[in-house]
Amino acid sequence: MVVRDKNSKIEIIYNGKVIATHEKHYRSRTTVYAKNQYTGLKEAEGMLYPNPRAYKVSSPEVEKRSLGVYESLLGVGTT
Q1: Rounded to an integer, what distance in angstroms lies between the CA atom of residue 28 and that of residue 23?
Q2: What letter would DSSP give residue 13?
Q3: 25 — phi, psi (to 5°)?
Q4: Which of 15, 21, 52, 69 is deepest in the core (most CB within 10 A)?
Q5: What span, in angstroms and rounded, lies between the C-alpha atoms of 18 and 14?
Q6: How far apart are CA 25 and CA 32, in angstroms?
Q7: Do 35 and 23 contact (CB within 8 A), yes or no?
Q8: Closest C-alpha to 3, from 46, 44, 26, 19
Q9: How many Cβ atoms from other residues are within 10 Å of residue 60's Cβ?
């Protein structure tokens, strides 16, 4: 796959064929869809699904142990 900038448009090329063309956007963190990209899809009924929402989950507390704990579980002595 090749993505190139051509005449203020972005072209996506696959196996030598242009498979999508988008207007060039200069704003970051945006999603650009191809015109009629979802037309004819029964699952989406031609509509875009809303973007998934992420929630920050706090990290679990992790216990710090010496390697000797694991060595004793395996029956291995330290050298």
Answers
A1: 14
A2: E
A3: -115, 145
A4: 21
A5: 6
A6: 8
A7: no
A8: 19
A9: 5
CA atoms within 13 A on the CB side of 55: 2
The Cα–Cα gap between 40 and 47 comes to 10
- pLDDT score of 4: 92
Q: Whose structure tokens read 């037309």?
A: 39
**Residue owning tokens 């242009």:** 18
Kindly report, residue by residue over 19-50, the tens digit of the pLDDT. 888 888 888 887 777 777 777 776 656 566 67
- Cβ contact 44:35 at 8 Å: no
The Cα 10–Cα 19 span in angstroms is: 11
